[in-house]
Specification:
With 399 residues, the chain is an alpha/beta fold. The protein contains 11 helices and 18 strands.
Length: 399
């Protein structure tokens, strides 16, 4: 072969190696958007609405679609940036966790390569089997003479570097209400969610239903689980319980995050309390549940049905009535903990949805200077479900 001859494994074109490298670079710049796993038990989700069109430039963290789970609908923030090149799943479709929803890339990536990427993904994707949600499952234990259901999540990093967190839900809820929070918070610490007596899978025996009784049950559960002290995160009635524990047992709480807490003002929506307890049909219960959120579209049929199923359990309605009568009556809270916050001597923060219709966000005004207050726009009474990323960031930042 003379010096003027050329030979290439890529064929006759001397530019072929550059073309091949460009193709590989293009393929690596194609990014999938997949069905997220929100909560340890989530196996599938329904794509309710696309908020962007093909060809739109998407920023990291931009709200690009609404996804419905069996618990609640929520917006999905894009985990990638680029141009939306293809929608793989249409509105209304239900697909398993990990399924390809859409594809993002640079505008210079040829359409054929986008299609090849999608084809390869779909060919290799294996949906999880039903029941293979993975991760820890709720358990029960005996604590303080009661059966308590809990979900105990170890640090995902395998190294427990942070103080344990104990999650305390509100009136009528259960540990499933932390589905968007628990796994995320457990990155470097143990996180335990508890069903209060009268709720979820815990005993329906609540005695007089007082704050002291509920707080004692949480402490007994912490003892049974070997949690000597923790960052207490309480929502609504659970917030009042967290204050009660921290005030009476200063060695058990290292910090307190209060999400739309009870006990910091007088007003409460008795319409919600009575409707939640009394309504027994989905049609009439749904407007009551919708009071919890800023956007009623977030409430799913499954969410309403879950509440109805719980209320059909033996003793559930009687337990709710006892707790409500002990703590709330006639649009007024019977628990007053506002002055207690200044005495705690540990980091305390309050997180409130500005559109809260159950406990007004104005209850966060005029608190001691030592209490950090975060108000979240576009959220109602359950910001930890409506705006989970913002609430999780606030919890992680409290030292």
């Amino acid at each position: 072969m003379s010096s003027g001859d050329s030979f290439s494994l890529w064929g006759d074109s001397a530019a072929a190696p550059d073309a091949a490298r460009e193709k590989r670079a293009n393929m690596s710049s194609i990014k999938p958007i997949t069905m997220p796993k929100w909560g340890l038990a989530m196996e599938e989700g329904a794509l309710a609405r696309w908020a962007v069109e093909i060809g739109a430039e998407i920023a990291l963290g931009q709200e690009i679609m609404d996804i419905e789970t069996t618990k609640i609908a929520n917006v999905f923030e894009s985990p990638v940036a680029g141009v939306l090149r293809k929608k793989v799943v249409a509105e209304g479709e239900t697909v398993p966790v990990g399924a390809l929803l859409g594809v993002v890339s640079g505008v210079d990536v040829p359409e054929a390569e986008v299609e090849a990427f999608v084809g390869k993904f779909l060919e290799s994707f294996k949906p999880p089997e039903k029941g293979e949600g993975g991760g820890p499952q709720p358990q029960t234990l005996e604590a303080g003479g009661r059966t308590i259901r809990y979900l105990d999540v170890a640090p995902s990093s395998g190294v427990e570097a942070g103080t344990p967190i104990v999650l305390i839900h509100g009136f009528g809820a259960d540990l499933g209400g932390w589905m968007f929070n628990q796994a995320d918070l457990a990155e470097d610490r143990r996180v335990v969610a508890i069903d209060l007596p009268g709720h979820g899978g815990s005993t329906k025996q609540v005695a007089e239903g007082s704050l002291a009784t509920l707080a004692a049950s949480v402490l007994a559960t912490m003892d049974a689980l070997g949690v000597a002290s923790a960052h207490l995160v309480g929502h609504s009635l659970g917030g009042a319980i967290a204050i009660e524990i921290a005030a009476g047992n200063p060695d058990r709480a290292t910090a307190v995050t209060l999400i739309a807490p009870a006990g910091l003002g007088t007003e409460i929506s008795q319409e919600f309390i009575e409707g939640f307890i009394g309504e027994s049909r989905a049609r009439t219960l749904r407007p009551v549940i919708e009071m919890l959120v800023a956007n009623p579209a977030l409430v799913t049929a499954d969410m309403v049905e879950d509440v109805l199923k719980f209320k059909r359990l033996d003793g559930a309605i009687a337990a709710l009535r006892a707790i409500a009568d002990a703590n709330f009556k006639g649009n007024t809270q019977r628990i007053a903990l506002r002055d207690t916050l200044a005495t705690l001597g540990i980091p305390v923060q309050v997180v409130w949805g500005e559109a809260d219709r159950i406990l007004p966000a104005k209850h966060a005004e005029g608190l001691p200077a030592s209490v950090k207050v975060t108000t979240i726009s576009g959220a109602g009474h359950i910001p930890h479900l409506e705006k989970a990323a913002e609430v999780n960031a606030a919890i992680k930042a409290l030292k």
